[in-house]
Specification:
2 copies of one chain form a homodimer.
Chain A (H helix, E strand, L loop, with lengths): L9 E4 L1 H7 L6 H11 L6 E6 L12 H7 L7 E5 L3 H9 L4 E7 L2 H8 L3 H17 L3 E7 L12 H13 L4 E5 L7 H14 L5 E4 L7 H10 L4 E4 L19 H10 L8 H15 L6 H5 L9
Parallel strand pairs in A: 1-2, 1-8, 2-3, 3-4, 4-5, 5-6, 6-7, 7-8
């Protein structure tokens, strides 16, 4: 292993938001149950909801109700994804102290998603960041399609890094490179993380990895070996790829925890407990989730003789 | 990437044998179809059948008929797994020039599987190797449970390496460390490959990796960075883990090819063609296979605007 491998990483579980957003709708109570269960596993960051328009994403229409019902834990940082100033106001008024906004590095993807160019999105994001800061909250900018676009294909790394740096200049507290449709590979991780570090060596950086093509864990190791300390993952591998029906989405949190612990990297997460929550997530959405570890159990779970 | 990463690796598809052995039985014609289809993808090694007793593994009862029906390609090396001298004679008489034998590094696992200690297995293996060599054939020794045992748990690396070195002394042309139940992780790959290379720096070495716990691709990269040039994989991720019902088994060949190509490592395999064969494999066994890439397609397959 590289000498840069951190001794400890922070995993943010995005299952309640990014995961459930790509599943058939579940009841409000199920979302609350999932968020509260995840908070008991040792995870210190949970992406809880998004304040998006219910016409755009009906799965998140009850965000306010979910968040009003959850009993938050003091040791967990909960975040909300917001699409714009209106959503940001709602999130901040609901008490969130961590919000996330998205800009796609692919012009085509950004235009199709929100009918804005990435430049127009970045201008709006600057206002969201100012609003968050005025409220004493933190704002992370997620650069989506950072590893490739389902429409355009390759997105040059300097274009991706360029948008990330502009977000930093606009005040983003954290940058997250999102592998929206699972097009990442270890060399792309190295070029992207390296390119950003060259420009912003000390800025907080996270990776949001998907396992749509089986490269998720190899990408995680590549990021880790570059010293990346923050990764998104989704309990059970909850969620899917919106561009490939039936395909996997986020890396599974328990698989990330298992691999990190095998690598000697601390996460603070109780793996057995998290596996129970993954089983709960599977029950809540009523379908078999893609996590392999959920089926097999950790290597310490031996067969009876 | 480490400077040791080879420019090209050999993938052996073990789907027709190791894969189908862990699926409900399929007709002889389906096995022939799969073997012949794999031979057209650019793969140069295929584990075709095993000559085991039909009471032990009914899925392979028609091995002789399968192999008599397949039209072999001159550019492909086909191998057969054999459990003992009787099986080895059958394989060699059928014309195989590559055979494989197995010894488990776990005493408990070996005793439960074939009622022999690993030492007794190694003595028998020496006779199989001699028989193969007398026939001008090659013999690979697969050291199973090399990364851990479903009954014993940890198997000390020096014990695993010790059996591998004894197999080399007995004339094994190639050693393959088998992650029988998917307990491998990158540090274990490094300790095992490093330990073997310390004793046998120039001997042919292969890794047989499973993805039962989501670590398969990270383990592949770890092996690659140590210069390992031979990996087993199974088209579609065909097969499962016999110790965890419903769990994944072998790494999927197309996911290995995809990742290797992304890493700039040649395989000689036509990925699109292999994905077609993976779809065929899925049809032949009549269940959804675990390969993620099979569902999503390669990153070059873009969405329509």
């Amino acid at each position: 292993m590289s000498a840069d491998v951190p001794a400890r990483v922070v995993l943010r579980d995005v299952g309640p938001r990014d995961g459930l957003q790509n599943e058939p709708p579940v009841p409000t109570a199920a979302k609350v149950e999932l968020i509260e269960a995840l908070g008991g596993t040792g995870l210190t960051e949970i992406e809880a909801v998004s304040y998006v328009h219910p016409r755009a994403i009906p799965q998140m229409a009850d965000a306010a109700e979910v968040w009003a019902t959850v009993a938050p834990r003091p040791e967990v940082r909960y975040s909300a994804l917001v699409p714009n100033l209106v959503g940001a106001r709602r999130a901040l008024e609901a008490g969130f102290t961590d919000i996330e906004v998205v800009v796609s590095a692919s012009r085509t993807h950004n235009l199709r998603n929100i009918n804005r160019t990435p430049e127009e999105s970045l201008a709006a994001i600057a206002e969201v960041i100012d609003l968050a800061h005025a409220d004493g909250a933190r704002c992370q900018v997620i650069v989506a399609t950072a590893f490739g676009c389902p429409y355009e294909g390759e997105i040059p790394e300097d274009q991706v890094v360029g948008y990330a740096v502009r977000a930093v200049r606009a005040g983003a507290d954290s940058i997250c490179f999102g592998d929206t449709t699972g097009m990442g590979s270890p060399p792309r991780v190295r070029r992207l993380v390296g390119g950003f570090r060259d420009r912003e060596p000390d800025h907080e950086l996270a990776l949001h990895l998907h396992d749509t093509r089986g490269t998720g864990m190899a990408n995680l190791v590549a990021g880790l070996e570059l010293g990346v300390e923050r990764f998104d993952a989704s309990v059970g591998g909850l969620g899917g790829c919106p561009y490939a029906p039936g395909a996997s989405g986020n890396i599974a949190t328990e698989e990330a925890v298992y691999l990190l612990h095998e690598l000697g990297v601390e996460t603070g997460v109780d793996l057995d407990h998290l596996l129970e929550v993954a089983a709960t997530a599977e029950r809540l959405v009523g379908r078999e989730l893609p996590s392999r570890l959920l089926k097999a159990g950790p290597r310490t779970r031996l067969s009876p003789l």
